Amino acid sequence: AQSVTQLGSHVSVSEGALVLLRCNYSSSVPPYLFWYVQYPNQGLQLLLKYTSAATLVKGINGFEAEFKKSETSFHLTKPSAHMSDAAEYFCAVSDREGGSEKLVFGKGTKLTVNP
Amino acid sequence: ETGVTQTPRHLVMGMTNKKSLKCEQHLGHNAMYWYKQSAKKPLELMFVYSLEERVENNSVPSRFSPECPNSSHLFLHLHTLQPEDSALYLCASSQEGQGFAGELFFGEGSRLTVL
User: When you count CB atoms within 10 A of the terminal residue's CB, does the N or C end of chain B come out lower?
Assistant: First the structure.
């Protein structure tokens, strides 16, 4: 079964600083990888996804992530944090175990943006 | 109208009550999911319905009973719950097949409190 590890349950940055949220996956075959964002009292919203095309994936709100097979990583970055980026971010990997397709999520990283 | 709608948004119930959570998707998808989100735990996949047939049941206690009467509607019937069942319950939908890449569309969740 696939698994996802998100390093750091909490990350705090200053407004305008670089955002880096880490995600490592375990997979023996090329996976599909996702980043979702959850704002307070809301469901999860897709930020971006990697589906074996370009290794650098651009998403909404200025976020991007790079798929590195050699490092089994899919870290999320944004050059300049905005106050509105404060939310919880989830990395996920697709899994086909048991005949049905499903997503396996990491534990999430809560991003705080300080003025 | 949002793609995936969940009602009620908030529910408080006693341990002996019977209640139901409802999910409706307006995206024409053929698969629907229930996830449980508890504090400090990863998202837990509870049930998967594909083409209205349950294809996954992740060892969920029988006090949770799903129902999928058609491809647009999904219910989670609750009875004799425990306080540890208090959580945010998220519904999601996806389009399986045709190059499915695992992308899920989430509702805003139903916040359940069991007293």
Answer: N
What is the phi/psi pair of residue A32, to 5°? -95, 135
Number of H helices, E strands in chain A: 0, 11
**Residues of chain A found within 8 Å of residue B42, distances taken between Cβ atoms:** 105-108
The whole-angstrom separation of Cα B70 and Cα B9 is 22
Say how many C-beta atoms besides its own lie within 10 A of residue B96's C-beta: 15
State the alpha helices, DSSP H only, in chain A. Answer: none
Determine contact, residues B9/B21, Cβ cutoff 8 Å. Answer: no
- Residues in chain B within 8 Å Cβ distance of A99: 55
**Residue A98 pLDDT more than 70?**
no
Q: What is the mean pLDDT of residues B2-28?
A: 93
Confidence of residue B101 (pLDDT cuts 50, 70, 90): low
